Amino acid sequence: MRNKEELLKELYPLLENELYQEIKCDEIPFCVLPNGIDHIINSRDKRKIKNTECVICKFNKTCNGFFPEAKHLIEHVKDLPAEIILEVTDKCNQDCYYCFNKYEYKTTTRNVRKELSKKELFAIIDKIRDFGLKYIRFSGGEPLLRKDIFELMNHAKGLKIWLNTNGTLVNETNSNQIQKYVENVLIPLNGYDEESDFKITKVQDSFKKKLKAFDLLKKLKIRRAGIVLTKENVNNLAKFWQIQKQQDITFLEFYRPITLKPDVETLKKAIDDIYRLNIKNKTNFKIANALPFCLHRPEITSKISLGSIYDDGHNRLVVSSDGSVKPSYYFTKKIGNALSDSFYKIWNDEFMISLRNNEFLPEICIKCKYKIPCLGGSRALAHLKGNIKERDVLLI
Ligand SMILES: C[S@@+](CC[C@H](N)C(=O)[O-])C[C@H]1O[C@@H](n2cnc3c(N)ncnc32)[C@H](O)[C@@H]1O
What is the pTM of this model? Predict the structure, then answer.
């Protein structure tokens, strides 16, 4: 067998073509293809074994081991989150009716919560670096509302910085600073033109400001646009592909609206249309948050959805604006505090381990062909509804 690097160099780009052709890798151990585990056929063949590398591997509970011939390829994958997201403020200059932050702030009151101080955030950033992570993301609320945002970024030296900003506050001056520190920016297109964007954000000229932000941040390697799949956006999906081309946006990513009042028919239409538009435009844009594949044409949904791999505590931790830590943006359950607890303790909290080991999957998902990466749709919404082991709220 060839060496691992050679194998990966060929495999990962190949997997990007899955829109046209289903690609499955027969019996590759999870540690050999850690970013493509959804493509692995993971049988329970009796000849498979595990070794001491497996015992400390992030995938020990999910991977069924390896054939003895592959022993030289086995190397444990560290059980760490891929990134930690810091919500540096709860304040926002937009007022989107659907914002998932409202699930959290309805228990307090948005905009009056005390934010963490610069010194406290410096301490948390140090902890993230010490925990051995490579990525930090600044989000909120609107992170550019903080006057010390670039001091925070400067303090995150050595970490790769991602930024979620609504884009309306990006200007000629701060765009240089952003380009100095940030590797990857995510700006939402709440609508597809001035009127539809304003209806959501209530900010005058918000659409124009966002397009200008994309323009001012041209030097960034990756500029992503995020689109929530509301009925109005879904009825106008092709327009987002036009904007992407005009502005030379690296890629679009879509979000199933996080809400306890889902619009199932709109999401089904979104799945069909995103697939069709990807084929038509030769793109590979995806729905980036949890979505149960059995909602609609799983063979298509699996090609345009990242599933829950980046959601529900599988790969990230989110530090809320008061320092409490949650498994994902919209999990209302708190797992300790970033100031008083170590990230090691939080990541290895019993609840987090159960999430990562899929112990909260509904029974029906356990033997499903799409278990990985679907992971039972949104566990956060099932939890919010009252039973974390219940099926995704879109299915009941
Ligand atoms: C909450 S905002 C915070 C960061 C920053 N202010 C921004 O606008 O990007 C982060 C992202 O969440 C998305 N979002 C907000 N509410 C959502 C919901 N209910 N479901 C899915 N995505 C949502 C927004 O479109 C935005 O791209």
Answer: 0.93
